[in-house]
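Hi R.,

As promised on Friday, here is the backbone we talked about, encoded as structure tokens. Could you run it through your design pipeline when you get a chance and send me back a sequence?
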């Protein structure tokens, strides 16, 4: 007799993913509009279904177990497919324009797949995406040019945004031995203020290493071309280093703190804009 398959409860999976993203049973309960005791029972049911412990809980913190980290990837994929299917058949005629702003490097690397899935679920919604420096994006956001905005920020920033991404930063150069005969360190940067520029100069200052700005460019393509040409080193998220550039991951340069991307949105959102906001948070969460 064939073995009976176990069906996961989407509601339990969503609760688990929300706790993992927010790092708190209390915050997850508030986000989902449920009692904390209900959240605890849901996790107990999910762990019983999976026959493994997914979360380690202490009086002050919540963390994923090894199995929990593995299951989280499945959880997001399950929720993506569920929500896309519901959206596709539940709101097939939803129309409108959503204006999204994002840093060029992040938009190039991480957003295409996210926006493609949104477009598939809502084929009649038009997306207007603008890429620019965070400083310019924030200025345009204050002028009501965007419905949804993704910006780079320090982890300690006080912006009232939703943190949706965090990634290690690395030093990159056109060749692995670029710094062997170079003093002070030449930097390829974006115009100030820029999170990566600030992170680079602060790290070098703390390490008591001399530096100079060798090339400034507001466009990612221009900055990468300068690095390839040997004009200096740049700071990039590890997952965004393109082919042809080399990560300088030895002890010649100081370590860099992680980068963070936050989502901001207008106070009043149309239904399509609300759906895009939720989709980005869920996809990048």
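Update: got your reply. Pasting your designed sequence below so it's all in one thread:
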């Amino acid at each position: 007799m064939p073995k009976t398959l176990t069906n996961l409860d989407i509601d339990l999976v969503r609760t688990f993913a929300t706790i993992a993203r927010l790092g708190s049973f209390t915050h997850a309960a508030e986000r989902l509009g449920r009692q904390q005791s209900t959240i605890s029972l849901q996790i107990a049911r999910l762990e019983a279904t999976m026959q493994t412990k997914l979360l380690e809980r202490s009086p002050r913190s919540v963390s994923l177990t090894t199995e929990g980290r593995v299951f989280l990837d499945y959880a997001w994929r399950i929720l993506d497919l569920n929500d896309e299917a519901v959206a596709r058949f539940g709101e097939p005629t939803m129309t409108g324009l959503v204006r999204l702003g994002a840093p060029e490097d992040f938009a190039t690397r991480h957003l295409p797949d996210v926006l493609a899935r949104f477009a598939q679920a809502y084929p009649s919604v038009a997306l207007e995406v603008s890429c620019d420096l965070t400083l310019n994006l924030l200025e345009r956001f204050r002028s009501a040019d965007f419905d949804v905005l993704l910006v780079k920020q320090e982890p300690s920033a006080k912006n009232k945004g939703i943190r949706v991404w965090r990634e290690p930063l690395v030093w990159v150069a056109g060749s692995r031995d670029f710094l062997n005969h170079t003093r002070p360190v030449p930097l390829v940067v974006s115009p100030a203020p820029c999170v990566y520029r600030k992170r680079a100069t602060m790290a070098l200052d703390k390490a008591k290493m001399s530096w100079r700005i060798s090339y400034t460019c507001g466009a990612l393509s221009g900055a990468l071309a300068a690095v390839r040409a040997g004009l200096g080193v740049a700071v990039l998220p590890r997952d965004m280093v393109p082919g042809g550039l080399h990560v300088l991951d030895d002890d010649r340069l100081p370590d860099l703190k992680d980068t963070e991307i936050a989502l901001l949105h207008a106070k009043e959102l149309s239904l399509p804009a609300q759906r895009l906001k939720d989709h980005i948070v869920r996809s990048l969460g």
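One thing I noticed while checking it: The chain has ten helices and twelve strands.

Thanks again,
M.
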